[in-house]
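@here heads up, posting the sequence + SMILES for the guanosine-5'-triphosphate run so it's all in one place. Ping me if the SMILES looks off, I pulled it from an old spreadsheet.
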Amino acid sequence: MAALISPPFPASFSIVRFRETSLFSTRLLPSRNLQQRCNYGWCAVKCRLLSVSLAPSSSPPTVINEPHKYFDQAIITVRSGDGGHGAILSMPGQRSNSSQGRPEKRKTRKKNSYRRDFDGSLILPMGGHGGDVVIYADEEKDSLLEFHSKSRYNAKRGGNVDTMGILTSQLHDELAAPTLRIPVPVGTVVKRKRGKLLADLAQPGDEVLVARGGQGGISLLDLPQHERKKMMALTTNVLRDDTDKVLVHGQPGEEVSLELILRVVADVGLVGLPNAGKSTLLAAITLAKPDIADYPFTTLMPNLGRLGGDPSLGAGMFSSEATLADLPGLIEGAHLGKGLGRNFLRHLRRTQLLVHVVDAATENPINDYRTVREELRMYNPEYLDRPYIVILNKIDLPEAKDRLPSLTEEILRIGSVGTPSEVKLNSEAPDQPLSSEVVIKEKKLEDYSPPLSVVGVSVLRGIRIDDMLKEIRKALRKCMDPTEVSSAFNSPSETGK
Ligand SMILES: Nc1nc2c(ncn2[C@@H]2O[C@H](COP(=O)(O)OP(=O)(O)OP(=O)(O)O)[C@@H](O)[C@H]2O)c(=O)[nH]1
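bot reply: prediction finished. Complex structure tokens:
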């Protein structure tokens, strides 16, 4: 953040007014929750910066790639409430300690006004339980950004027992503080900071108790020595010496630092280089309204869309309904943290099916496709074992349409063989003699299975969208039946021709 507001910042910054007009490009920040995001101090600064730098011009604005880095992780500190204090009470009819020296309004109380348990023992009031802290998955939330502006959460303390000093039937257990419930997006993993995993809140409504409120202190009866023996038969809460007073204090709540990590929950992950058309695809087949623009990195955080079931398949097949995630463009080196890449690769973890979106009108679409596959492999080779289909997009453009058959053929050719090649790797240095070599098997792109299908479409012009949908649904059904996937890998369909 410091970098944003230091040297490049114009001196006139303080008098530049923040305008929420077209100058403020919703393309830089996703439109959903835009207002919410701009409520944060740091975001307001960014908005101002944008309004300065986005003077009307045809060139795309410089991307300030700060917020995306944090939408899916946050560190917060929570503290549960302390327990309320109990009190040292006097028996009715006795002068309370607290009222000593003051004129006492003595009320006559009946002996049977004590609250008693079923066995006749006295029930003395307790300090209220401190508020617990619970984190729960809420469908309304879609990012962890808000935790960067507020990272501390304290539950309330339990109520104290009234210290009037006289036990009456009106005294009851003091109120427990309410549980502090913190909503997070579905798919959030909750961990202790640099510690163990506490919960994976993968379903709406999942919750985890992260800090337990302190227990309330107990109350004790303060009695003259000669009455103690008799009363101890009725209740153990009789003050015997000064050390007993410790029990009267409520227990402190606990404070914990937590790491929240969001892993998007989606069945299908859309991957591809920036500008390939992933957001346009998502908007074409779901009700999602992602930000679309003709410059890279429009998408700064995953957009989710719900793909409805296919009614034409009948009730039994209606389960082909799925959630799609448009993941921001990968670039070469993304696995090393270049571009926006690495932050988003983890969001593929929960997906069942990958949809590679390739801009078929670029100079070298096959190279683009290989770049993305390679990045996935470098980040996590397991991603390449996942079923996938390839969408060759922008076939409305002549340069894409003409080479569609050859591109389809080439993509299917990558990965049709399937035997891992043996690679000799030197464990110390490349020019060391063979004696120190270890032979390991490393899979190359060609060694992984080919796509389940390759489809040529234009998501912008709506060309062959139905074919693409059919393939996505078919692949999803196969994902649910793993035996079908392996057989399907051997006979991919070529709907691109
Ligand atoms: N001609 C043509 N243009 C398309 C098609 N699909 C998308 N585009 C354009 O390609 C540009 C990029 O589209 P996006 O959907 O934002 O691309 P993206 O892959 O989501 O980009 P990132 O957000 O950077 O990852 C936009 O200008 C779209 O209008 C298509 O089928 N044909």
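MO: Residues 272, 274-280, 292-294, 296-299, 328-329, 393-394, 396-397, 458-461 surround guanosine-5'-triphosphate (CB under 6 Å).
MO: One more: The chain has a mean pLDDT of 72.
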